[in-house]
Amino acid sequence: MPPTPPPPFYLDWTFWTAVVAVLALLLSQLPPLRILFRRAALALEPYDRLNVTHYVGNPNVVLHVQLTNTGGRDVRVVSLTLKVTREDGVGTTLPAQTFVWPDEPDASMIFTPLTLEPDEEWAVFVSFFVPFSATDEREFKRLAKDLRADINAKLRARRRAGEDPKEMVEADDARVAPVTAFFRAKRFWQQSQALLAARRVRGAAHGNL
Fold first, then answer.
1. In terms of C-beta density within 10 A (0-12 exposed, 13-18 middle, 19 or more buried), how is residue 70 classed?
2. Phi then psi for 2, rounded to 5 degrees?
3. Residue 100 maps to which CATH number?
4. Which of 49, 82, 121, 174 is the most buried (most CB within 10 A)?
């Protein structure tokens, strides 16, 4: 009597149990797979207000920036730049230099390249400015040192004369003029005509014109 052939594999319940287990594993991985096929995308949402300042005329802008990786792959952010154009058409480009976290405003950090994973968010206050060159930095430090030395000398002379050392002193024009010239050479922000007119009115009222 020939041996009885085994039943077909598709009639074996253990086979279907294994198939169901494999399908369950694949289905559990579907969300990551769906994200994987999404293209790289980065969403930028700046706050509608910014802080405009300067350092001896050199423009500086602090802006709250929110970056979100809306794609399916890691995104590497190498640099951020801010382009500013005045009403007269003159523009400048300011690169990101430092940033602070909203909950740690006193801990300034240098901006370096960063990587965002899918759905990851990076929301910080970024400071945009062009740093002084080594030559400009040395020049300004020299001018500030000379100005400070002139003021300190006048304060010491006032103390030796028995005068009130808390009274303000005025530096010599020879020390002030180079600092003013340095400021004007670096200045980018322009005052509005309305603000200038208001200052002229206040000056005239106080006899300062």
1. middle
2. -65, 150
3. 2.60.40
4. 82
Could you tell me if residue 67 is inside a domain? Answer: yes
Last residue of a domain, one of 87, 102, 129: 129
d(CA 178, CA 183): 9
pLDDT digits (tens, 9 = 90+) for 126-137: 999 999 999 999
> Into how many domains does the chain fold?
2
**Which residue is associated with the tokens 């430092």?**
98
Instruction: Tell me the whole-structure pTM to 2 decimals.
Output: 0.70
Residue numbers of the domain that contains 146: 134-188
Are residues 114 and 141 both part of a single domain?
A: no
Q: What is the pLDDT of residues 90-100, one digit of tens each?
A: 999 999 999 99
Give the rounded distance of the alpha carbon of 206 from its chain centre. Answer: 41
